[in-house]
């Protein structure tokens, strides 16, 4: 394997830099604050958080590269004997202040173990407070284009994977309009490690321009108190997903990661209202009706 | 066993009524709204929610009695063959609007299976936004008195159990000042089922007068924007505990319970702030310093 873990980690660091620069230029007001941290059992990271910007109310763009003995929970799940692990990646969640601008998440990561096992994983998904069809179409078409460039099977596989992954079973709703999700992409007859890596790199580079395009369409729109209230409710679903289901959050907390970096994904403010139901024929009801699996946004 | 599940469930229903009456009288403005619900696989419940009261911003007092085939997850955890289960109890979380009034939680429950296994479980714990020593002392002394009435070992066992249970490992802090927690109290040489049940009943009846006493001490105090902000931050820790760790929430969601009833424990509004640290020597820092295990509040 020519491609080694340090090379991957270094590239991720560069990606973090590039994304932060693009987001700062776009926001036009706030800048990222960095906290470098180390992990007792090995490795560390650079957390970058932006708050109270023109567009971004709270956002995190995190890089980490952690290593050490693989935690028991993970070994048991994989049914493997003790081995060291190395995990590196970039993880992003952006909470804009306006309900007209969607929440977005991206993660690109690499994992390897001292027994030779390795894989890539990641995904991008969009959580609009109000689903706008033409944005949803653009978002999915861009993801599809990056997937198609690398393999015709990718988008048809990774889009439904995102539908299944970013799903709240207790709400019977998806987190947003999905996107792509993939995990344990390792080498086989069809893909070399380098090919997997190139795909991951393209996903990583797509993130900032794609979000900036969509957020830019709506950042200057006005909004009402009711629309802000609906945003706070949708954010509470985001909290539920991340704390109940998100595997990255679980992995981070299980491996004794840095809590404030892991939970930078939490919204600045969220609201829970007992049995809230959108009014019939309202924009909120329309959005709710689109929070389901299997919608072909790219082909809309 | 003279004491059967229907008798227990009926008593819990009555407890729910009594607690709601006392809380309504105390609040003086809002009243509980009831939703009766049934569960597809068997049983149902009565959710009662109070909102926008003088004291209570959002609170739930839920009764449920559910039954049916025991979910796989639970059977696997208990290493048991298929059997039916029956679970009934009252579950309460109250979120007051004022940061001077603590959040409180109580749960009392009974669980049995068709293979003859049964147990009681439950607990009460208090989450002050600002810890006041004399309230903490009173709260723990009252819990201790109810425990001591039934067995000298109860409080010394159930108080540390609450410390361990209501704990956020990723924050290295307790949820609040704890209280008592107990689970799987079944019959043995020392305790009959009736004795366990009488203890549980006393815990249930203690709840309303105990909370009303402590909340009543502070409900009319004024508070600042900063104090409200600290409350929203503390509430976010409450969310984290309930979604990451609370076994009742997990059990409810795993057994396909009614989501809105289970998540009535969520606060009306919560805030996450990256790396928030209380100012040195502030009341917030003092509270933070008391969010740890092993403090003998009753003996303060």
Structural topology:
The structure is a homodimer of 300-residue chains.
Chain A: H1 5-27, E1 33-38, E2 43-51, E3 56-69, H2 72-78, E4 84-96, E5 103-113, E6 118-127, H3 133-150, H4 154-165, E7 167-168, E8 173-174, E9 179-185, H5 193-218, H6 225-244, H7 247-254, H8 259-262, E10 269-271, H9 283-289
Antiparallel strand pairs in A: 1-2, 2-3, 3-4, 4-5, 5-6, 6-9, 7-8
Helix pairs in contact in A: 1-5, 3-5
Q: Which features does this protein show?
A:
homodimer; 300 residues; alpha+beta; oxygen-dependent coproporphyrinogen oxidase; 7-stranded antiparallel beta sheet; two-stranded antiparallel sheet; 10 strands; 42% helix; globular
Question: In CATH, what is the class of chain A?
Answer: Alpha Beta
Helical amount among residues of chain A, as a percent range?
40-55%
Q: Report the biggest beta sheet of chain A as strand number plus sense, adding barrel if it closes.
A: 7 strands, antiparallel
The H-level CATH homologous superfamily of chain A, spelled out, is: Coproporphyrinogen III oxidase, aerobic
- Please write the string of helix (H) and strand (E) elements of chain A: HEEEHEEEHHEEEHHHHEH
Shape-level CATH architecture of chain A: 3-Layer(aba) Sandwich
Shape of chain A: globular
How much of the residues of chain A is beta strand, in percent?
25-35%
Q: Which structural class do you get from the secondary structure elements of chain A?
A: alpha+beta
Mean pLDDT of chain A equals 95
Oligomer: homodimer
Total discrete domains of chain A: 1
N- to C-terminal distance of chain A: 42 Å
Count the DSSP helices of chain A. Answer: 9
